[in-house]
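Fold this sequence, please.
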Amino acid sequence: MRAFTLVALFGAAWASTGCIGPSCQSTCSTIFGEPPDQCGLQVPGKDLEDSFRDCRDACEVALTQTGEVGDYNPFEANTGGFAAVLENEKQAALWMDCVEEHSCEDLSDGFCAPTAF
């Protein structure tokens, strides 16, 4: 019984560290993975594998930078054509949450920018 209690305690502690939820890997897979399970968004001149790799790398670099969200809001459609860039960990976290909450159609319509890497 004691072993079970320790496992439950460590499991609860691990869950509270923020390790559950989207990651750079899962978010980029959602955007650039093969349909029907993922969106498979095409970036002109790139294959899905290269887009996935560039997405993951940009996200992971952003996670190493401290900073504020500022004016960045991925939950508003980027219809102005400007190139959104993930600059820091707070923006990357907000972006990952946005991708997790939106449909592939929404991503195609400009939500959760950037979606072209």
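The CA atoms of residues 40 and 54 lie 14 Å apart. Helices lie at 2-15, 24-32, 48-63, 89-101, 104-108.
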